[in-house]
Design brief:
Elements: H1 3-32, H2 41-50, H3 52-63, H4 68-72, H5 92-98
Length: 99
Amino acid sequence: MTWQRSILIAAILLFAVVYYGLAFVTLRDLVRRPAVRGLNKTAWALSILCLPLLGAVLYGYFGTGNSPSRASRPVGVEPEFTPFEHLFESDDRWEDFTR
């Protein structure tokens, strides 16, 4: 096998991974989203499945709209849980182990 054929196979495999990966990600987002803008979910799913690249780009641009969680969150309010919350707790629990 020549190096040109190897590069062609690698390019085709990369394109296929991007092609179907993008379709999978957009379909997963479509299923998880409670409502979409424009067409109904079935029409968006069909457009993503029939034309994965174009359908995914159109869905991302027209179908998603603004995220309600970002739009309704007041500015300056912290979330209830932060992933680094444990760093700001007191170290009283470690005092028992050091004695």
